[in-house]
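Data availability (excerpt). All sequences and predicted token strings are deposited with the supplementary files. A representative entry, Beta-ketoacyl-ACP reductase, is shown inline so that the format can be inspected without opening the archive.
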Amino acid sequence: MTRTALVTGGSRGIGAAIAVALKNAGYKVAANYAGNDEAASNFNAETGIPVYRWSVADYDACAAGVAQVEADLGPVDVLVNNAGITRDAMFHKMTPQQWREVIDTNLNGVFNMTHQVWTGMRDRKFGRIITISSINGQKGQMGQANYSAAKAGDLGFTKALAQEGARAGITVNAICPGYIATDMVMAVPEKVRESIVAQIPVGRLGEPEEIARAVLFLASDESGFITGSTLSVNGGQFVV
Ligand code: NDP
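Structure token line:
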């Protein structure tokens, strides 16, 4: 049976690597994105993976978007909540808008998306919800009170929902990447990046494909006993 996977923020960075890995593993894959049409159409041209534009921060747009994906590819069996943004600032300078945008995308977006696929997964007695949280949701990071709060919220959501989904064959897990070489991290000034790498015992940034392999593992039928868990993929930077 060919399963269908939907990856939010699947047109670039970690999400793109996840979408490609799922496709290579035989899934039907849809990739969502927010607004960068050029990156999305390049990704579509390179991979053949269909791309769908909507914001995960908008509940009604998520409902319409998932309905379209399911009409095109069939019911979503695997949802990867990967879309995320940063709006970094020290707290005394953080604006309500910076706070809200990050919570809306990185936490409310996970509710908005998971809510669309949950009933179908319960009815079909199978589902995989995999949310990309962050090392900074585990340990907290100065300059990221908004981001750390949202990503920590994703972990609480995962643990609670895992209990609700267990009897229906739905597993709900989170992955906490450390620092991965994507646009998000490459936008950090080089000096800061060097100081980050110095804190990673493995001695380098992670690659998007290393997160994708963890997603493949949690998505598989064989991972049915793993639920409510947080998988750290961080080069040893933070050991829980
Ligand atoms: P990128 O900035 O490289 O890519 C972000 C992707 O998310 C893009 O496809 C973007 O679409 C999409 N996106 C952003 N906002 C929305 C939205 N509101 N609705 C739908 N799609 C949206 O990010 P990364 O690949 O670096 O990060 C992916 C995830 O991993 C995020 O959740 C991030 O917090 C998390 N993470 C990343 C780490 C890292 O080191 N890179 C470390 C720990 C966690 P568009 O192109 O249209 O803007």
